[in-house]
Amino acid sequence: xxxxxxxxxxxxxxxxxxxxxxxxxxxxxxxxxxxxxxxxxxxxxxxxxxxxxxxxxxxxxxxxxxxxxxxxxxxxxxxxxxxxxxxxxxxxxxxxxxxxxxxxxxxxxxxxxxxxxxxxxxxxxxxxxxxxxxxxxxxxxxxx
Length: 144
Known about the structure:
Blueprint: E1 2-7, H1 13-26, E2 44-50, E3 53-64, E4 69-77, H2 86-100, E5 105-111, H3 115-121, E6 124-132, E7 135-143
Parallel strand pairs: 4-5
Antiparallel strand pairs: 1-2, 2-3, 3-4, 5-7, 6-7
């Protein structure tokens, strides 16, 4: 059974989250390990666990307090577990948390190849397509 947990950077699971993000997100596109951790201390971290193994993660970073806006970042699912609904579980937990925190909008920079995944959950594309880390992306948002 998959369990979704919210952790902090002080949790021992945070080191496993960092490794997973490096393996799934950064190394395949040639970025150095730990290249996207600059906001980790101020963010909320969600991890997916199965049989005491960390198999997925996502980060929610507060970005605008006045209008209660946050950014979904760095979602990674271990390759052997992709396509099993783990990302959806993580995002539903993240959105429930955001609602409890009074956040009104969650945005993300979606790789164009996974836009449909976010759209099925209820995110919408806004603005123009752009390139980030050499990959086509779209701005997406979910209004709570």
